[in-house]
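We close this part of the discussion by returning to an individual protein. In the encoding step, the backbone of a single protein was reduced to a row of integers, each denoting a local shape. The sequence in question and its structure tokens are set out directly beneath this paragraph.
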Amino acid sequence: MVLDKSRIQIKLPDKVKLIIDTLNDAGFEAYAVGGCVRDSILGRNPKDWDITTSAMPNQVKKLFRRTIDTGIQHGTVTVMFADVGYEITTYRIDSEYEDMRHPKEVIFTDRLVEDLKRRDFTINAMAYSDSSGLIDEFDGLSCIESKTLKAVGNANERLSEDALRILRALRFSAELDYEMDSELESAISELAANLSKISAERIATELIKLLKSDHPDKIRRAYELGVTKVILPEFDLCMDTLQNTKHHIYSVGEHTIHSLIEIDKFKDQFDERENKILKLTMLFHDFGKPSCRTTDENQTDHFKQHPEASEKIAVNIMRRLKLDNDTIENVRTLVRLHDLRPKLTDESVRRLIVMVGLSRMEMMLKVRTADMLSQSEYLREEKLLYIAELEKKYREIILRKDCLSIKDLQIKGRDLINSGIKEGPILGEILKALLDDVLITPSHNNYDYLLEKA
């Protein structure tokens, strides 16, 4: 790909063009800037359009009918059109950073280049307007051309200012499939320990974006550069744990990386929330193996009860990263049950569905497949046939609408109370026993039978 700065033309959204034109007509400079420019050049659809201007915040507010002071102390005003907002930020120079995340103070400037030089990477330090074309003072276009991630100016300075940029570098590398230049990698390795000062929420956001990218295997580079040692030391233990067994050809960590790649092949079958759950499940599913590893007299490794150990570790990590309860509950269930191998009978598969939860069964089948495809070739054909038969039986059960929960029983708690059974713990125990009966024999899901059984 050969890119000519003079020939770059970006189709600005109507509202962005209106904002820039309004500021220009009032005598101010204004440009689309940052990620939206980068994504437009790459042929991607930008999620957000940020605008930078020489106008001061109060001058911006006077030019537009509806504005919100989203970060006015840092020069940012959001202009609203209906329910869509566009951030407009005054050119600024950041002073010394006090907490490896935020500058002590912001100094406004009337020079665009000063604003661009404070940004993290060259591909994010480009600006554009229809009248001026592409402004690329730090050669971001050539970095796009060579698929290279490079810091603006001195890499150590940029990462020392804001330690989160370490994770952003790895995340952009994964999302864009770019290689980081040697100076940036050296700075990451040297400054990785600074990530301990970044909030858990910020770390979680960047880690999940990396995992959900098309190249989740870039987590290997995070390990090699010492980043996971700070934010996810449990992963380092997995990378250092071998699996001397005929079922595996990789260390626990490398198996994890390959399973992340395999689960990515199913992403089009799931929504954004489910893909997040799947990626976290594959990341954590074997984290218990290092602590469960035993070696027999034949030098063969065993990892008994590792799913339960992995679940505990996964929950601790997710709470440490302050993930939401829905994510924690879904991931912990899939991790705990990922290695179950029920008999291929209707009853056993029905019981599996109850344990996993109907809403998670599609994800569980893909977790099993991704896990298996990241192992050795030993018995692979038999393992694939097993998963195929398991899925077939699952779909037949769903098609028949077999009873799979207490709410699907043909008798309700109120019916049992009306029949003379007292409210209390015994009522729940009876309903569980009735469900157990129906899981064995679906035809027993009949009101009269269940009433007599109760």
About this structure: Residues 380-400 form the longest helix (21 residues). DSSP finds 23 helices and 13 strands in the chain. The CA atoms of residues 246 and 378 lie 7 Å apart. The mean pLDDT is 95.
